[in-house]
Specification:
The structure is a homodimer of 381-residue chains. Helices cover 35% and strands 20% of the residues of chain A. In chain A, helix 1 crosses helix 2 and helix 6 packs across helix 10. In chain A, strand 10 and strand 11 form a beta hairpin. In chain A, strands 3-2-4-7-1-8-11-10-9 form a nine-stranded mixed sheet, with helices on both faces. Chain A has a two-stranded antiparallel ribbon with strand order 5-6. The longest helix of chain A has 16 residues. The interface between A and B is large, with 56 and 56 residues.
């Protein structure tokens, strides 16, 4: 396998933009990434494009046609919230194995114009979902269990929203750029007790794009490559089959493999971008990713370890909670954020001297309470 | 790159089955392929699943959960009519490059239950489509041009429908199993002059699945492997930019590469399964694939060369016209058909002694009249 680097990134603002089409959003992100990389559209040899919430065919090809990327291999992919991670992995693999030298990973979503907008999302055969075990309900059940098992308090979860909105207020691409107090988060509308509104990520529109390149050609384009040190994509199975729903079941199946590929451990990470669709997701991922022992996510919050300036900042972008969450775009957006940090380019929210970072997304739910896909990437400068 | 073989195939009946869910259809096809291969679900290491016409997330994972395929890498993909070919290529590549030994390619579509059912399909930014240049209209324009340039007659196109329905009448999995006379085809309802109803593929539901395996493990499962001799997936660009719309523009961009990979030419093919969404598609593909010189597709029909028993049978399955066309399933279904022939298992419609066959699908349209994706595979016994 060859070494592969990110040599350019670009994205749109995230937010509610129902006046903008998928093609419009995607085109802006791709143009920004091309410009950032200095790569000509004619030199892109492979493209993976992620989208979920629309029935649209050949979106990669349509966006490609607008920017001059044609006559190449293109995959349109979907893996729920991990769709962007899936697109990134697809391009990485095609380059790492030597088939192509330069490729484009793209995630595009317009939640506000989806026919699903405003509807609880559940599949036709998902009995638990049909009976009301929606995403927030599932999050609430897991919060309750974590509280019962480890003494975690509602304030711990709420503090994650406070932290991520603090970060998001520093991010010009964020859907929200507004700080909230702990009381405001706790007192916002109850969605599924103890989960309040400000602890849930918003519906969002947006796109993000990344250009990847084989080691041999990197120096032609950039002096600041960001290397892909690990790539893992798995469908990790079902919480319903787990003994303990306070965990995401990623450990054995994804995260160990990612650390092994990269030759690092959680103690080597300078920061993490992870899937905080709800505040509890971030907390249980602290434990799953090994940022702290099982049950000590609350303590990590109390210590301020995961805030900017802390020991291991998590979601310096603001995460899904503040940056917004256009499903298939988020996994690629995380790569943009990490790249900017590793190139020391994000100003006020910069993690100083960051050299190693991890991106994690998980997506979908099958049989009601199982995550259906998980993508983890470790990047280094 | 390692050699990769098809070691098991399975599919549902194709037809209008609105009472059946995507998961139901997909599960049946996967179970049939597993049974045919003798592979345990636990030994499947990677899965690509194609679907287009529904907003459904993680379909691969949901179907996998029903049959015991979990905890593996899964991609859900879309490339319009070439989605099934895309899924097949993805699994082939993952095995050929050595990441995995055994994988599952799956295509599932339920056109009758799609929210698109009964609507012309066009993207939000596709101006030509919005103005009425639907798929049948585009086919009709290309027919007219072929007639003007080469003297091809409406009867030539209609004879393709007669032939493919003759073949479909021998196929127990076909949506239609009914023969039509030339007059019946020509006199069926006019859709877009000179294209009549019986020259258009139907809306269909169905699923098809294929198990692929690395050479080293093939002998554990089968004594009749079907080898993948070539795999090409490209987005071949736009008819709007072509000088000649009577061609599909596949030649330089896909088919030459496929023949080169396999080390064969069109004269070496024993039969072909190709994308006959409309009768004219089959005719221009004769020329594009090199089964005859440009302009001589009509003559090939007159000679009966592409009928079962002819020099180079095309669509012994009945093709999309008679077998039916559940979009993302068709590319995988072609692999099933070819596998059965190369194993000498299809009875009345068997191409005797077949050793080499080609599968071709193209999909999507961008900027009104451009095919957006093309997948070509050459298989040998």
């Amino acid at each position: 396998m060859r070494k592969v680097a990110v040599i350019g990134v670009g994205m749109t603002m995230f937010g509610k933009m129902p006046e903008r089409s998928l093609v419009d959003l995607g085109t802006e992100a791709v143009r920004a990434a091309l410009k950032d990389s200095g790569v000509s559209p004619k030199n892109i040899q492979v493209c993976y494009c992620a989208n979920y919430a629309h029935i649209v065919w050949c979106l990669a090809q349509e966006i490609g046609s607008k920017v001059g990327i044609t006559n190449i291999e293109m995959f349109n992919v979907e893996n729920a919230c991990a769709g962007g991670s899936t697109a990134f992995r697809g391009v990485w693999y095609a380059i790492a194995t030597g088939m192509y030298d330069i490729g484009l990973a793209l995630g595009v979503e317009s939640m506000t114009t989806s026919s699903l907008a405003g509807r609880a999302i559940t599949s036709e055969t998902d009995l638990d979902g049909q009976l009301g075990l929606s995403m927030p309900a599932r999050a609430a059940l897991r919060m309750k269990r974590h509280m019962a098992k480890y003494g975690t308090k509602p304030e711990h979860f709420a503090q994650i929203a406070v932290k991520n909105h603090d970060h998001g207020a520093l991010n010009p691409y964020a859907q929200y750029k507004k700080r909230f107090t702990l009381e405001e988060v706790l007192n916002s509308r109850m969605i599924a007790e103890p989960l309040t509104l400000y602890q849930c990520c918003p519906n969002s529109d947006g796109a993000a794009a990344v250009i990847l390149c084989a080691e041999e050609k990197v120096s032609q384009y950039t002096s600041k490559p960001v290397w892909v040190a690990a790539s893992v994509l798995k469908s990790p199975g079902y919480l319903a089959l787990q003994e303990d729903i306070t965990l995401a079941n990623l450990t054995e199946q994804c995260i160990h493999e990612a650390y092994e590929q990269a030759g690092v451990g959680p103690e080597d990470l300078d920061f993490v971008e992870l899937h905080d669709a709800f505040t509890n997701s971030e907390l249980y991922l602290y434990e799953e990713l090994g940022l702290c022992p099982a049950g000590e996510g609350g303590r990590l919050i109390d210590e301020g370890a995961t805030a900017l300036g802390g020991r291991i900042p998590v979601n310096p972008s603001g995460g899904l909670l503040a940056q917004g969450h256009p499903l298939s775009a988020s996994g690629v957006r995380q790569i943009c954020e990490i790249t900017w940090h590793l190139r020391d380019e994000v100003g006020a929210r910069q993690v100083p001297g960051a050299k190693v970072a991890l991106a994690q997304m998980e997506g979908g739910m099958v049989i009601g309470i199982g995550s259906a896909s998980c993508g983890i990437h470790i990047l280094t400068r």
